[in-house]
Amino acid sequence: MARAKKEITCDAVVVGGGPSGRITALALAKTGVKTALVAPLDAPQDARTTALWKKSIDLLKDLGIWDDILPTAEPLKTMRMIDGSKRLIRSPETLFESAELGVEEFGYNIINAELNNVLAAACSAEENLTCVDDFAENAAFSEEKAVITTKPGTTVSADLAVAADGRNSLLRTSAGIEVKRWSYPQTALVLNLEHTLPHRGISTEFHTPTGPFTLVPLPGRQSSLVCVETAETAGRLKTMDKTLLARELEDRARSILGKFTVISEPQTFPLSGMTAQSVISDRLALIGETAHVFPPVGAQGLNLSMRDIADLISAVAAAQAKGLDIGSPEALRTFEHKRMADIRSRTNAVDILNRSLLTDFLPVQAARSAGMYLAGKIGPFRRLLMREGMAPGTGFQLRP
Ligand SMILES: Cc1cc2nc3c(=O)[nH]c(=O)nc-3n(C[C@H](O)[C@H](O)[C@H](O)COP(=O)(O)OP(=O)(O)OC[C@H]3O[C@@H](n4cnc5c(N)ncnc54)[C@H](O)[C@@H]3O)c2cc1C
After folding, report:
1. Is 124 found in the same domain as 199?
2. Under 8 Å CB-to-CB from 178, ≥6 apart: which residues?
């Protein structure tokens, strides 16, 4: 902890203590970059869970923290899509199985609180990382330096600042980076459930006319639920008596997991989107929800942020190998070049998928239905979708 220290000079400063910020700080520090993290020391409280695909898990393994998360994580072996609408044109049920790709699991469902706690402990213990236990109050960027100041007056100067301070980022605004924002007529109700039947590693997504209703396995006979609804219905469900709520959710899930018991406080998240017009500025890189926000459809948000982090680390390593400083325009341009296409394509894919569920327009329903039919029948197409869902650009490597 560095509260007493008033002036800190380092190679990189990361601002924001959510998963993106802490993973970046840890990754930079472990690659030998002298790093400071400006964030409250205590891990943020978050009762949600996150489905992380294999490449994201690999990054956590490289950082040496996966073994601490694994005991409370559940492998995701099968993805089942069920058309839960009563529409004229409906999609057939489709199964995506990790074994078909020759892997044990697509990834794991992890408990956010567990991830945040493990990350907070790892950051505190990392020798090459100075933790500044506060929020950033001011950020200034020039061609030479990034300077972050906290309320009590601690100043951190660095060659590179990484903004991981979330969707209303102070750093992004201070650098004058514009964003495009939009909203959806939907709210996600999120909670955890206990059920009487085993989930067998199957994540089930019902496609309903208001959005997905997704059950994702947790250890034992437990699952997390993301139920995308109208704001009005989500609000009604959130305040419902828990026994009645469990019954209503069980009906919606067609009792595939038996009887439900609600085991966490229901939370609601209005769905929205945001994309930063650029992910770099002088001495600044944006990552995670500072750069991109989209609905929780297809478990893409933090997985995309993990690719931001991997690309940032590789741009930093490339700069070091060339003897450049890590916040130089060339290093930042390399990072931006790698990120923009991935961010745009994921944001568009999630947007199209989400809107295709909402529309009553028959040709769109027919196209979605045909896509699911083809995925069910044609192995190479199904495997391509599975690979693209887990990591972009790998879909065309049709191995097994
Ligand atoms: C219902 C739901 C389900 C989801 N499920 C999945 C999933 O299954 N898979 C997936 O990949 N993604 C999922 N996501 C997306 C994922 O949760 C987000 O992408 C992720 O939490 C964003 O992390 P972050 O660190 O980028 O941002 P945040 O978690 O928002 O962290 C930003 C941090 O910065 C801090 N901060 C703000 N201002 C300052 C400041 N001035 N100084 C210092 N710190 C500051 C904030 O306090 C906060 O801790 C889901 C999202 C939702 C809403």
Report:
1. no
2. 276, 277
Q: How far is the CA of 235 from the centre of ligand 1 (A)?
A: 22
Both 265 and 195 in one domain: the answer is yes
Q: Where are the alpha helices (DSSP H) in the chain?
A: 19-30, 54-62, 66-69, 112-125, 170-174, 231-238, 242-252, 301-321, 329-358, 362-377, 379-390
Residue recorded with tokens 């520090």: 29
- Choosing from 48, 132, 275 the residue with most ligand 1 atoms within 8 A of its CB, the one to mutate for a pocket test is 48
Count structural domains, the chain. Answer: 2
d(C-alpha 5, C-alpha 132), whole Å: 9
Q: What CATH number does residue 91 fall under?
A: 3.30.9.10
Residue 271 CB–ligand 1 contact under 6 Å: no
For a pocket test of ligand 1, which of 168, 275, 302, 390 has the largest count of ligand atoms closer than 8 A to its C-beta?
302
Query: Domain range holding 107?
Result: 53-111+185-271
Residues 153 and 163 in one domain: yes
Check whether residue 231 and residue 170 sit in a common domain.
no
pLDDT in tens, the chain (400 residues): 555 558 999 999 999 999 999 999 999 999 999 999 999 988 778 889 999 999 999 999 999 999 999 999 999 999 998 877 766 556 667 888 888 788 899 999 999 999 999 999 999 999 999 999 999 999 999 999 999 999 889 999 999 999 999 999 999 999 999 999 999 999 999 999 999 999 999 999 998 889 999 999 999 999 999 999 999 999 999 999 999 999 999 999 999 999 999 999 999 999 999 999 999 999 999 999 999 999 988 788 999 999 999 999 999 999 999 999 999 999 999 999 999 999 998 898 888 878 777 666 666 666 666 666 666 666 766 676 777 666 665 543 333 3
> Residue 128 corresponds to which amino acid?
N
Domain end: 271, 290, 307, which one? 271
CA of 19 to the centre of ligand 1 (A): 7
Same domain, 235 and 126: no
Q: How far is the CA of 398 from the centre of ligand 1 (A)?
A: 33
State which of 353, 370, 389 marks the end of a domain. Answer: 353
